[in-house]
Design goal:
The chain is of the alpha/beta class and 443 residues long. It is built from 12 helices and 21 strands. An 8-stranded mixed beta sheet has the order 14-13-12-15-18-17-21-16, with helices on both faces. A 5-stranded mixed beta sheet has the order 3-2-1-4-9, sandwiched between helices. The longest helix has 15 residues, at 11-25. The two termini are 34 Å apart.
């Protein structure tokens, strides 16, 4: 079968992988090598006896696969070791009709994980002496560091970020199979191969906010961004408090625009100020960034920029006492060029000209803590907006005295609070609550 080696480096590791690939492919099949990222370009500069393709990541894989006939092909990272015996077991299962075949490995969190395995010198001998499960089973969560399929089927997977070593592929149980008797050792060196976080002399990550009268919430948001982003861009839509002064004192750039009665349009105002960056982080003043390792996060984004047009981030909605109300994942990190916001209320990021919103894998290096749904925050905002409004709606005639007080102070009807919140949100630039969603737990 043909072999495509996805190279991460360093050079000696890649050369050993090429040598193993040539043995596995034999004399009648092709071995092609593609660099996974800019960090691997030197590792593939002078391979011997194989074809090195142009392009990085998925572009390189596409170029490699385009040169092959539609036959069984093994895609393998340069830090994965598999023996001829293991590959024979994979090929046997593939010939029986399974679409994508993976071996049992030491990749945690996958359906093909079997525990620790030797990963350095001597791994090939040890693998053939290791007991491996004989069961062939379906898999719905795999890491594509060693995967067998036809050239056409592997090409269909290029919609996924195959060159991102952190990526997990999830699919129907009839798509992926773990081959009984096949065992591969993954050293995971690919997880530690990064490029500089500013490889092309441009800002890597810029935060974008729209605000109005956020003097209470904004300082905490800006502080949480300091170690993660290169710059903060803010569009103010008519603050009458100290929001603009606070933002500029913290080093943020502020533009001032009239509220357009449309969240998507307002966000596009500030998005235009971010076009020089590689990525934009969309965030609100009542949110806080939590990042486990800012340096690692930035290097990851720089290295695999070409793999991810957008990334989803977990948003955790908090109650007043700090306990979790619910969480969900949505696109908040995306390419700064070729994108736009659409949607008057619950806006979303689109590629320019596309009707469907962008989707992206969940990026677990970042989380956003959202304080805006805490009862005291909602009450204070509603009260502030009501007091500052030139015209209040009349109190419902059927309301009790207690309800009349609530209506006057909070500008929320006793029968339909969401409709009124939505109304003043549209007028004043405050985000209406999202419908409650159940907590989501990832493996």
């Amino acid at each position: 079968m043909h072999v495509v080696v996805l190279a991460y480096g360093p050079t000696q590791l890649t050369r050993r992988a090429i040598s193993r690939a040539r043995k596995l492919a034999g004399k009648t099949h092709e071995v092609l090598v593609a660099a996974a990222s800019p960090a691997a370009t030197s590792a593939v500069s002078k391979p011997t006896g194989v074809t090195t393709v142009k392009g990085l990541g998925r572009a390189g894989l596409r170029a490699a696969l385009s040169q092959l006939p539609n036959e069984a092909t093994l895609l393998i990272h340069d830090d994965v070791v598999i023996t001829a015996r293991g590959l024979t077991a994979m090929n046997r299962q593939h010939s029986q009709g399974s679409r994508y075949i993976v071996p049992y490995t030491n990749d945690p969190g996958t359906d093909h994980f079997v525990g620790p395995l030797p990963t350095e010198k001597g791994a090939e001998r040890t693998l053939d002496q290791t007991n491996v499960p004989k069961e062939t089973k379906p898999a719905s969560a795999i890491r594509p560091a060693c995967i067998l399929g036809t050239k056409d089927d592997l090409t269909k997977l290029l919609g996924e970020p195959l060159a991102d070593p952190y990526a997990m592929l999830r699919g129907a149980s009839n798509e992926f199979s773990v081959a009984g008797g096949a065992l591969a050792s993954h050293s995971t060196r690919c997880l530690r191969r990064f490029t500089n976080d500013d490889p092309v002399g441009q800002p890597l990550l810029v935060a974008a906010l729209i605000v109005k009268d956020e003097e209470e919430m904004l300082p905490g948001c800006l502080e949480s961004l300091a170690s993660v982003v290169d710059r903060i861009e803010i569009c103010d839509t008519g603050s009458t408090d100290n929001t603009i002064e606070i933002a500029r004192a913290a080093g943020a750039n502020v533009i001032e625009r009239e509220w357009p009665d449309d969240f998507g349009k307002a966000r596009n105002y500030v998005l235009e100020e971010c076009r020089d960056a590689r990525y934009v982080l969309w965030i609100d003043a009542d949110e806080r960034v939590v990042c486990r390792d800012p340096a690692h996060t930035r290097r990851y984004l720089a290295t695999y920029h070409a793999e991810h047009q957008a990334l989803s981030i977990d948003i955790v909605n908090l109650q007043s006492d700090g306990t979790e109300l619910y969480n969900f994942s949505t696109v908040r990190l995306f390419h700064a060029t070729g994108t736009e916001f659409r949607g008057a209320v619950h806006e979303a990021v689109h590629l320019v000209g596309d009707t469907a919103p962008l989707a992206g894998q969940t990026f677990d290096q970042l989380r956003l803590l959202h304080h805006g749904y805490a009862a005291d925050v909602i009450a204070e905002r509603a009260k502030r907006i009501a007091i500052s409004s030139l015209r209040r709606p009349s109190t419902p005639p059927t309301a009790t005295p207690a309800q009349q007080s609530t209506w006057r102070d909070l500008w929320v009807t006793p029968t339909s609070p969401r409709s009124e919140l939505l109304s003043f949100s549209r007028r004043h630039g405050a985000r209406p609550p999202m419908p409650s969603q159940p907590s989501r737990h990832r493996p």
